[in-house]
Amino acid sequence: MAKAPTIRKCLFPAAGYGTRFLPATKAMPKEMLPIVNKPLIQYGVEEAMEAGMTQIGFITGRGKRAIADHFDTSFELEHQIFGTSKESHLDDIRQVMDSCDFVFMRQREMLGLGHAILTGEPMIGAETFAVILADDLCAAPTDSDEKRALAQLAELYERYQCSVIAIEEVPKEDTASYGIISGDEIAPGIYQVNDMVEKPKPEDAPTNMAIIGRYILTPEIFGYLKQTAPGANGEVQITDALKQLAQNRQVLAVKFKGQRFDCGSIEGFVEATNYYYENHYSD
Ligand code: UTP
């Protein structure tokens, strides 16, 4: 088999309202909420960079300007702290800005995650690409040198040359918050997907293996998304399109290594804050 082309592009759907964080998200995007001193979206872009991707596409909506400003130069601020010890606080974001190109696309109506991804088609074209949901924050494993989740998925793509999604076992009573897969385990922790269902009640869930916010998608997903009728909550679900794709092509699901924090929920956000403060923060 010919070597798979390297994945260059990563989409960040970020058009949602973040209602679980109101009133904090009334005038500020959820993706800009900080875990200690870094916004969620920056953790996501750094994870994409670690996986070798530097063409970054944001799917945004109204009220999301702060994301664009974050990845741009702030002349007054930088002039103000130039030559002081505070300048080092900007090292990480400067490295991100120097390494990546950023494209902003607007999703004019909140028609679901699948629709948000479809909004990115003009930037992606006919390439395999990645998707990160920044409110799922993935930390690297602590017991090995392994990279974060997206790099693990990209490595599997190079090996199998098909769409790859990240999964995690969740308590059975939580299945209604996730897309749930079922499939055959073809290698330890790697499943060939044969079915998926969006937000099933625990009694209807085929397994407890939940899709989390990291995907590598081959471009044929766009054709499936265009044919996908609105499903659960009247939204175009990526899970429904992936299910169709899995019926015609190989789709893999992987139990990635490392920890995932659901920063779209208050509990997960607090847990992530404590974890990053204890393990990664130095003044
Ligand atoms: P969520 O279901 O977490 O929705 O979307 P949300 O609006 O961000 O948060 P809550 O539930 O109101 O608190 C999952 C991801 O998909 C994006 C969101 O921005 C989030 O990253 N999304 C969802 C879109 O970009 N467009 C949509 O139409 C729906």
What does this entry show, briefly?
The chain is an alpha/beta fold and 283 residues long.
Describe this structure in words.
The chain is α/β, with parallel strands linked by helices and 283 residues long. The protein has one domain (9-279): Spore Coat Polysaccharide Biosynthesis Protein SpsA, Chain A. The protein contains ten helices and 13 strands. It has helices at 40-50, 65-70, 75-81, 91-99, 113-119, 121-124, 149-160, 221-227, 238-248, 266-279; strands at 9-13, 34-35, 38-39, 55-60, 101-106, 129-132, 136-139, 163-169, 179-187, 190-198, 209-217, 251-255, 259-262. The strands form three sheets. The chain has a nine-stranded mixed beta sheet, sandwiched between helices. Strands 2-3 form a two-stranded antiparallel sheet. The chain has a two-stranded antiparallel ribbon with strand order 7-13. The structure holds uridine 5'-triphosphate (UTP). Residues 13-20, 30, 59, 107, 110-113, 115-116, 133, 135, 264 line the site of uridine 5'-triphosphate (UTP).
